[in-house]
Amino acid sequence: MRLRLIWPGKTRDARLRALSAEYLKRLSHFARPEVTELKETPGTKAGIDRDSKRISDRLPSGAVSVLLDPSGIQLSSEEMAAQVRSWENSSIKEVVFIIGGPNGVSPELSSNVTQRWSLSRLTLTHEMARVVLLEQLYRAYTIIHGLPYQK
């Protein structure tokens, strides 16, 4: 299964970029992860709409789309693993995870995704949210495959 991660802007912090690269490498043992970093527009309404349009244009038809959203559902690691397993068992070919810009995404994009998840009730920087998502996806696969991993 392909896991596509889409977000506006580059990860500027070298330490977070290194952590993201490490989890992408680990994930590649289980799935085909692919990151798409889009040009980020300043946080005006028009900028949010432009970023959301760029994201929408990158969503493949037939893929499951998951928007990371503070008002989305919160899953435990085990529940995330069960969701990933369900997608694999249903022969889902691609799942796209979307992290919007610092000012969010347009209502149109938000209403057109398959699911909305929240990583935490805490406020995370967008760069940190990227690392947390990648780590939790890796953790989900270790749970699915019964591999040891930190608890």
Search tags:
Alpha/beta knot, five-stranded parallel β-sheet, globular, 151 residues
Number of helices: 5
Low-confidence spans: none
Q: Could you tell me the number of beta strands?
A: 5
Radius of gyration: 15 Å
Q: Residue-averaged pLDDT, rounded?
A: 94
* Strand portion: 15-25%
Q: Write down the CATH topology.
A: Alpha/beta knot
Polypeptide structure, described:
- The chain has helices spanning 14-27, 45-57, 77-89, 107-111, 126-144, and strands at residues 2-8, 32-38, 64-74, 94-99, 115-118.
- It is of the alpha/beta class and 151 residues long.
- It has a single domain, classed as SPOUT methyltransferase, trefoil knot domain (Alpha/beta knot).
- The chain has a five-stranded parallel sheet.
- The longest helix is centred in the last third of the chain and has 19 residues, at 126-144.
- The radius of gyration is 15 Å and the shape is globular.
How are the SSEs placed, and which strands pair?
Layout: E1 2-8, H1 14-27, E2 32-38, H2 45-57, E3 64-74, H3 77-89, E4 94-99, H4 107-111, E5 115-118, H5 126-144
Parallel strand pairs: 1-2, 1-4, 3-4, 3-5
Helix pairs in contact: 1-5, 3-5
Q: How would you summarize what this structure contains?
A:
With 151 residues, the protein is an alpha/beta fold. It is 42% helix and 23% strand.
